[in-house]
Each structure stands twice: as structure tokens, then as C-alpha cells.
Design a protein that fits this description.
heterotrimer, A: 156 residues, mainly beta, OB fold (Dihydrolipoamide Acetyltransferase, E2P), five-stranded mixed β-barrel, 6 strands, 10% helix, 30% strand, B: 270 residues, alpha+beta, Lipocalin, 2 domains, nine-stranded mixed β-barrel, two-stranded parallel sheet, 5 helices, 13 strands, 23% helix
Amino acid sequence: MKSELLKTLWLASLGLLAASPAWSHHSTAMFDYAKTESVTGTVKDFQWTNPHSYIQVLVPDGKGGHTEWSIEIGTPTHMARLGWSKQSLKPGDQVTISFAPMKDGSHAGTVKTATLADGRVLVGQNSELTPAGPGPARGTAPPLFPTLERATPKQP
Amino acid sequence: MRLASRIGTRRLVASVAGLLLAQASISAASAANDPRNFEGTWHRADNSFTSLFILGIDLPYKPETQNHVSDYLEWFKEGRSKASAHLTCRPTGVQGVTATKEAVLFLQPPGQLIMISQEDREVRHVYLDQSHPKNVKPTYSGHSIGHWDGDTLVVDTIGYNGKGQLDEIGNPNSDQLHVVERWSKSADGNTLTAEFTFTDPVYYTKSFTKTRQWRRTSGARIADYDCGENPRTDDFAYLHFVNDWFKPVCVREVKNGAAADKVVCDAATK
Amino acid sequence: MNVNVTTFHRWGMLGRMGALATLGFCAICAPASAANLQMDGVWRIEKPVFAVKTLDGKTPPLKPEAARIYAAHQSARKAGDTSFDSATWCASVGMPRILFIDYPFQLVVREPYVAFLHQWNWWTRIVYLDGALSDSAPADGPPAVGRGAAPAGSGGTPPAGSARAGAPNGPPARDANKAAAGPMGLSKGRWEGDTLVIDTDTLSHLTLLDGAGLPHSQALKITEHVSLRSPDVLVDHLRLEDPETFTAPWETEVTYRRQRNGVIEEDVCLDRIKNHQPAVKE
């Protein structure tokens, strides 16, 4: 009971930082985990590489053209444990991706789920749907980083 | 006469094979029980979020050092980081030892302890019963020697090139850093404990010690982690480059989500 | 390497017990362990390979599409464009190319691991012998504090056994070792007498077979027979099978010379290319 309450409190406090940052190469504070956005489009490229893999997806812009989005997923060694592989996506595939967007509004984000054309759903390391078992703990939010006071004030 | 000797040889070979097998299993058991045998695969015991990023913020800082680290921590929380060896796919020195994220394989051939880490990808040689060379060639990982103090392996490292840092948020170290580690194995053989004592008179007022532990995870694979496989500009965009050391030479251009097909190396540096 | 008294004492308890047991019980058989240990040391390729050839000196038998790709790579290189070669930006040269380049490696023979510690960009290749990899996941150590830990100030503590299989602080999960492809791949080995037989697969598609630009697919499987031709010469006989790239399996052979007193130095490719040096010296 208590752990459920704590989990809820932590999920609610999820603002700046979130799951799986230790295994992402860069600081994940650039993503807004409190939001979930979704795009549906055609895969332009699936970069199954380190330090992160990327889905480059072309999303119709409603004006007859496309916008390209970069959706990051984790390093292959971690994603393989969640069922991803180099064959998961290829250019031309239709895909719907839910993701945490960039705070700066650019056409990028970090994946929460990817729904493939055949209906299969692949989850990312940041998904609340991450199954128990291999992979990071579900619904875990890390403690916020501490603050270190300066020894002397900043010079103006 | 010949038949008898053939039977005799077969029996001899069979019994020798049996004895060798028995010896092998006794040897394996004694290897596991040997307190000085650290061989095998291990995972860091405390993989908590902050522990992997931060060695500590209670370090004996000089005032200027504290100011810098305070700034780095604020950058980190804002989603930007100081460009570092770790973030630009180079050997990381201290961080690569204290903050292993995945499996680590320890091998102990005669005269060495070798630590092979998956992420960050590192290889570390500790040369046993040797001295540091007179003029150590500075490297990211430093030069490590070790000797036994009872069943504790004492590792001594100097020769850092000064381009590394102690952890991901940016606790600094200079080329004067001297690290002494004391490694020991638990009685049941399943936990390694290492006490790290850091001395760096450039940034800190005195020595300080941090302890880390690893749990045995037999059978783990050290997978390939090629950090530099795909140098996208969006991976570098959030970094503060405080100097030229880590600025990339070859990049795949990514602008507002659109990724280029090719990685291009700066023509001027080819 | 002669097993003299000094070496014997430096072997450590395991080695000494093994050697004593073997000598004591089998005076007539050469213990495999002592012969295998002779492979330990630092090795350097005798004739660096830029364009790998089969045993009879020919270009490996490419399928038509692969031959087109190879030709395209060669043209690009002639025109000064090496963007087809990820090693240019210090991505791993991978297997088997790391065996062909002029950078030394240290061979470490242990039980049940054999490690190739390459100098080039500090890459390692671990060969897992019988017993080294485990599909099942008994927890070796007690459950550890990990990412399931309650946040500071909450008053909670992680439940016992919270280090689940597959969690970074827990034992490897079932199939966790059956992981993604990588540049060095997954190498499993066994001893056949004094020869180390290695099977490597699970290789990433992103590397080239050699500096000349020979392509390969993720289906590539490599079988090596590694042995000592003489105390100071190591031979690696490779068989490559890649039905998506080649019309048939083919073989090649490389030899290495022992570097007595050799030491593997730290090599950081990214710093070399920043200094206008090539990523891989040819």
C-alpha cells in the first residue's frame, strides 16, 4: 500500500528527470517526460547504433509534405532485452510512435512505445509499460539531482 | 604382449583423464575459494541513478573547484553537460572504474589484473609487483600497479593525462591525481569491495575516500558497446565545450530532427 | 615460454595446483594448460592485410550485389571519399578486420575465457569457453541496492530480492546474453589439443571486412583455428561464411610475431584523427 502511494507520488513528481538515464549517453533532462506525444508516419531510416539507436520517421505535415522526426531509443544491447532488433523497423514501414518530446520543441524525442504495422508494440526504456523482468524498473523515478552551493558568488 | 600393453595404456589414459577431471574441479573450487582470485564477471552493486553520475558532492573542494562543480551540476540539471571524455567516447579514467554500468570481467593472468568493462567501454591493466616507470606516459586511464597486502589488493595509479574527470557531472581531476585502491573479496566470494582514496592537490584540499562494491554475476557476457559508432550532431548539441579537446572531427548532421545520410569528417582535419 | 621456477611461482595458486596435479598424475601427457599458456603474450601481425585474399591469393567470391558494393567502395576511396568506411570516424573496425591491421594485441588465456586485448582503440574480444556464459540466472550475490530503491526521504526500503534477473544489479537474465549484434560479435571457443577453435557470429552489419572495403552482412560467421607455429609465431586460420555476401565460404590465414616485453599502450583513435593522423594506419 505504502509502496503504491510512493510510486504515485514519484510519478506525479516526474518533471525533469526520468527512468533509464544512467544508460543513455547524454543527459536525459533535455526530454519532457511529463508529456507524451505521438506521431504516425513512414520510417526513413532505422539507425541501430550506439550510443543510441534512432528511428527517423517521415510524418505527413497535412500540406502534402513531410516533416522528419528523430526518435531516440536506447543502446542496442539494452533494447535487445526489450525485444527490439535491427530488423524491428526498415525504411518504408508504417509506424506509430509515442514519445517524450524535446523541451526545446524540435522534431525529436525519446521513445515510449512503437506500434508496428502488424500491431505489435515495442516498448522503450522510458515506457510505463516496460514489463517486469529484464530492463529498468517500471515506474521508477530517480531522485532529483542534489544542489551544490558555490563557495563564492558568481562575478557579474 | 602388444595387446596387453594396449589395454594397459588405455586404462592408464582413462584413469589419468579421470584424475585430471577431478583435479580440474578441485582447482575450480579452490579458485573460487581463493580470496586473492577476483576472476569472473561482476556488476556494480549500487546502480542508483545518482551514484552512477556523482562520486560525491561532499568532497574537500578548494573554493574555485566548488564553484566549477556547482556550475556543472546546474548545467547537468538543465539538460546540458560539460563535454567530457565519457560523453565523447574516450577512455574515462576514474569514472570507468568507479561507475561501471554493465558487466565487468576481471582476468588475472600471472603478473596482472585486467578489468574489462562493457559500459563505459574500458580496459584496465594493473601490473602486479612492479613499480611505476620513471617517466610515465600520461594517459586517460593512468598507469596502475598493484601488490597484495594480505588478501587485499592495493592498486596505485598515477600518470593521468588531466583530460579526465572523476565522475559524469564533472568533479575534476588534474594530471597530479594519485589514486590508491584497496580491493578485497567477501568470505562467500560474491562481493568485491573497493576503497578508493583520491589525492589531487590541484583541486582538493586533502585526500578523500569513497567505497564501491560489485556483485558476482557468473555467466554474464561483455557485449560490444561502440559509443563512437554514430556521431550525430544532436548528441553534441547539448554539450558545453570548455576547450577544444573533445570537439568532434566527424559528424552526421542532424537539424531539427532531419538526419543526414553520411558522416562527414571535417575536410580541414583530414 | 619455458616453465622455469620463477614462472611457476608467478602462476598463482590455481596454476600451481593444476600444474602440480598434472605433473604428478600424468607424466606422459603434455598438459593442455601449459601449452595453451604459451599463447599468452603480445603479438603483432607479420604482414598487415589491407585487402584480404583467400588462401590461394584471390579476392573472395562475392555475389553480384556485394561485388557492386565493393566496386563502389573502391571508386569512392579513389576519389578521396572514405565515408563508406565507419572506421574513418573511429567506429570499431570490428571482427575480423581488427586481426588484419598493424596494431598489436595481447592474448590472455584463462579458464574459461580467452581475451584478445587489441591496442587499436582499446577494443577487446572475449572468447567464451565452455561454462563462461550462462543462460539461466541463479543469483550469485545477494540482492543489491539498485534502481528500484525508494527515493531518499521516503522511508521505504527495497524489498528483499529486488535485484531482478536482468536488472543491472542482478544476475543476467535468460537470453540476456543473446544480445544485439556488435562489431566484435559473440565468440565461443574450445580447445582441440593445442589449437583454439573459435566460432564468431552476432556481428553488426556496420563494419567492413578489410581496409579495401569488402562488405559483409549480419549473417557472417567466422571460424578460427588459432595455434602456435613456433614459440614466437602465432597462426590464425580463418574460415568466413556469409551466404548473403559470398557465393561460398572461403578461408584465409594470418600470422603474428611475438613481441617479447611488448606492452599494449592506450590508443585513442578520436585523438589521433584530431591530430590529422589516419584512424587506421595502412
